[in-house]
Design a protein that fits this description.
350 residues, Rossmann fold, two-stranded antiparallel sheet, globular, binds S-adenosylmethionine
Length: 350
């Protein structure tokens, strides 16, 4: 397939004509703004748009998770939707610029900002930023093999004639053309976190969001934080989803995005390097202890506590699967919580 296959003949022709006109009559910042609105409109006026009836409340379009053209799709009017996008883009840009440098009647803020900003498109493994010059870092690292961001951005890159730096992408891919396995991912995440450490001022903070606290990807991030001398300060669940009783089994996995804040520690502590079996046993014993005291604990809470322990004891995790430890050694109750095995036997005999 080609990117052009994602469009009907009519929308393809309309987008092409629109882009030619934008490039012919616009320059500078205005051209940038038009192109932003143009790309924001592309998928929305493509065959990727499912008919309204098949859309769930959280399914704005089929380009969020991959490229899928259904049996039927909507064909939106390119120019009409572009005009809407342009209005929204201008409004967004104004709001944004108001935070940086107030402009006339659009200044809705009482605070007089004198901020400036700089956008960089560096590879996160090699930032064009001075060492120890940054007060705070917020990062949203890539999700391993869950979303192939660069590959999926082909729909926009092809129209803008841009070629992403695929080689340096931090991602997990089973494509034979790409040398991107889990080990590379861990190594490259570690390089990015060592850059974060380099540019952050001593004792300053780093926050990161992630979609889960389990799996090889989270392990890569945890190990990178520990190896690069970050102390865990705070964590928060960002979304607490609720599930119907029929989805009870899903409670065995952990849910929701997490926001973790860490501090750059200026003295590197020696790391505890343990074998996988030792770490697995340590987790098992620790969970037993918690369950002995508290009887029932849910999956999210166990993952959070283990993460806290990993950070406070500076444990580099190898191939240890916490969910496997839980399922093999503990009982998952109907109340969606974990308990000790013999606790269950006691309950049955009572
Ligand atoms: C979880 S997403 C973050 C999305 C972002 N918060 C947003 O709202 O657009 C991770 C991002 O990391 C980018 N990424 C992957 N490898 C990278 C690298 N080597 N340097 C910089 N960014 C990279 C991906 O393209 C993706 O956009």
């Amino acid at each position: 397939m080609n990117v052009s296959d994602l469009f009907t003949k009519r929308t393809l022709a309309c987008h092409a004509r629109l882009l030619v006109l934008i490039e012919k009559y616009s320059t500078g910042n205005e051209l940038g703004l038009f192109k932003l609105a143009f790309t924001a409109n592309l998928a929305n006026c493509s065959k990727l748009l499912p008919p309204i009836t098949s859309r769930g409340p959280m399914a704005p379009g089929a380009w969020m998770t991959g490229f899928y053209i259904g049996e039927t799709y909507l064909e939106n009017n390119v120019l009409h939707y572009f005009e809407n996008r342009l209005k929204k883009t201008i409004k967004g840009e104004k709001d944004y610029l108001n935070q940086i440098n107030p402009v006339g009647e659009l200044n809705f803020s009482n605070i007089k900002y004198s901020n400036t900003y700089k956008t960089l498109q560096n590879d996160a493994k090699s930032l064009d930023i001075e060492s120890e010059s940054i007060d705070y870092i917020f990062t949203d690292p890539p999700y391993g093999d869950a979303v192939p961001y660069f590959e999926q951005s082909i729909i926009w890159n092809s129209w803008l004639k841009l070629k992403p730096d695929y080689e340096n992408e931090i991602v997990i891919s089973d494509s034979k053309e790409r040398d991107k396995n889990v080990d590379n991912f861990e190594e490259e995440i570690n390089m990015a976190f060592s850059e974060i450490r380099r540019v952050l001022k001593p004792n300053k903070y780093l926050s990161l969001t992630y979609h889960s606290l389990s799996g090889a990807e989270w392990k890569a991030i945890t190990n990178a934080c520990i190896k690069n001398g970050f102390e865990l300060i705070e964590y928060k669940w960002l979304v607490q989803k609720s599930f119907t009783p029929r989805q009870i089994n899903r409670f065995k996995t952990i849910k929701g995005d997490v926001l973790v804040t860490l501090q750059k520690n200026t003295n590197y502590m020696p790391l505890i390097v343990k074998s996988d079996d030792e770490v697995a046993n340590m987790f098992k014993r620790q969970i037993e202890q918690w369950l002995l005291n508290e009887k029932r604990i849910d999956t999210n809470e166990i993952f959070l506590r283990i993460m806290k322990k990993v950070f406070s004891d500076k444990i580099i995790i190898g191939n240890v699967d916490l969910l496997k430890i839980l399922t093999e050694n503990f009982v998952f109750s109907e109340q969606k919580q974990w308990r000790l095995k013999n606790d269950q036997i006691e309950l049955q005999t009572a």
